[in-house]
Amino acid sequence: MGAQKIWLMSGKRFDSELKLVAILPVGSVERHGDHLPIGTDTLEAEAVALMVSEKLGAHLFPPIWYGSSMGLKRFSGTIDVEPNAFHNYVKSVIREILRNGYSLVVVVNGHGGNSYMLREVARELAYDFKDRAIVVVDWWRDVAQKVRETLFEFPGHAGEDETSVMMYLTPNYVDMDSAKDHLYVTNIKVSTFSALVDEATYPEAVLGKATRASPEKGRQFLEAVAEDIANEIKKIQQVLRELSKCKAV
Ligand SMILES: [Zn+2]
Question: What is the pTM assigned to this prediction?
Answer without folding.
Answer: 0.95
